[in-house]
Every structure is written in structure tokens, then in C-alpha cells.
Amino acid sequence: VMSILLHGDAAFAGQGVVYETFHLSDLPSYTTNGTIHVVVNNQIGFTTDPRMARSSPYPTDVARVVNAPIFHVNADDPEAVMYVCSVAAEWRNTFNKDVVVDLVCYRRRGHNEMDEPMFTQPLMYKQIHKQVPVLKKYADKLIADGTVTLQEFEEEIAKYDRICEEAYTRSKDNKILHIKHWLDSPWPGFFTVDGEPKSMSCPPTGIPEELLTHIGNVASSVPVKDFKIHSGLSRILKARLEMTKNRVVDWALAEYMAFGSVLKEGIHVRLSGQDVERGTF
Prior knowledge:
By secondary structure, the chain is of the alpha/beta class. The protein is 44% helix and 9% strand. The chain is built from 11 helices and 4 strands; from the N terminus they run E-H-H-E-H-E-H-E-H-H-H-H-H-H-H. Strands 1-2-4-3 form a 4-stranded parallel β-sheet. Helix 4 (78-95) links the parallel strand 3 (70-74) and strand 4 (99-104). Helix 9 packs antiparallel against helix 10 and helix 9 packs across helix 11 (251-264).
């Protein structure tokens, strides 16, 4: 399995979650052994120029916090893009570290149907309108090289157009939208036939007092014989044992009993985040 994330340039520089997940990328309990980040860098965020959106030269500079290699590649050169992607995959497989591919490209039309880019970026869009589309540019090169003939190229385009047209035609036959097909976790039996949630009552989850006492005793003891325990910690364990004997519970012991009872049922519990190793809270 290889993790691939696709980003926009403005989002890559502007979303805090990108910076945060880079810092998770090499932590022992969180690593995916390297993610390939592909940034579609059309050099504009909706209508915002990069100089108004970030303080660094490249949108991908945020990846430098983990010294990830960053490949800037001209998206008008498909073979260069393929080469860079191969190198990125090889890097990830060899070193199990994150790597970034910055596809430097442009957006031919507006951000959406309502956006006319000539309003906000007239000079840039005058240049873009002069650009030969990448498909034509690459096709002309291959035809000139004799790699493909014009007829082969046109047949390939016609084949692709036909796939799209047929899918579009079929889509008109769909009169009913089945939202549930798109849900990743449908909840069977949660709703009644007419769509109302059933009663939200929970089944009883109580456990016998002997089991709570057992968990309290275990949580107050040290499993290793002749283990020298810190005196401050020893006091906490003694106080916890006293509470268990006196049938009193504080937050920490309540947590132990919750985790302990779930573990007794054979369900794995993973604690993650700051301070869990010491059990501060």
C-alpha cells in the first residue's frame, strides 16, 4: 500500500493540517512509511496571487520542515512528470519518507463557472490563452517523432470521447439517487422505515462489582517483582488501592475501570496523543 495525497498549491501552503500531518509523518505510532504528495500548482488560489497568499517562494516550502525532497516539474512536459513521479516512488520505497511532486502548471478557465479570471488576473490570462494545450503539444511532438501517426492519435481521442459521451448518456437514465451507495459506513437498523431514528436507548453496559474491584486492584499494583518504584508513584498506587477498598472512584480510576473492562472483553485499546504515556489525566 502506498499513500498518495493530492493537493492544490494554495491549500498546501495555507492549510494547517498539511504542516501538522508532516510532523506526524515519521512518528513511531503514526507513520505510513512515507506519503507521496502531488501538488497541482496552477499558481493561483481561486483569485488570489501567491504573493498575497504566502510568504515563501514555493507553495511546497512547508514540506521542508521534515526535509522532504521536493521535485518542481513542468506539467507541460508529460515525460518529465512521469520521470519525476518514478523517482518519487523510488525514494519513498527506498527511504520510507515523505516526498513532494510540484506540478507547475496553469488553470485554463476560472475557478468555477461563476469566475471570470480576466477580471482579477488579466495579464496572466492573456498569457494563458496563448498557451498550446498540453495534449496538443505532446501529440504534435509524438507525431513529429514518428512515435504515433495522426490517425492513431485521433482514434485514441475518439475512443476516450466515446467513453465520456456514453457515460453521460447513461447518467440521464438514473432517475433515483441512491445516497447510501456513497456512504462508507451505512448504519443498518438505525432508522425506521419512514426515516425516523429509532429510540436512542443504549443496552445496559454495567459490569459486576467483583470485576471493578479486580480492575482497581490490578491498576494499583506493579506487575514486575522486585521493581523499584518511584516513591511519589507508590503513594498514588496506595491511594488508588484504598479507594478501591472503600468503593470510591476518582476520574483516573474511572478511566482505568473503563479501559480495563473493555480489555477484559478482548477489545484492543490504543491510547494516543500527548501525556498518555505518563497517564497525566
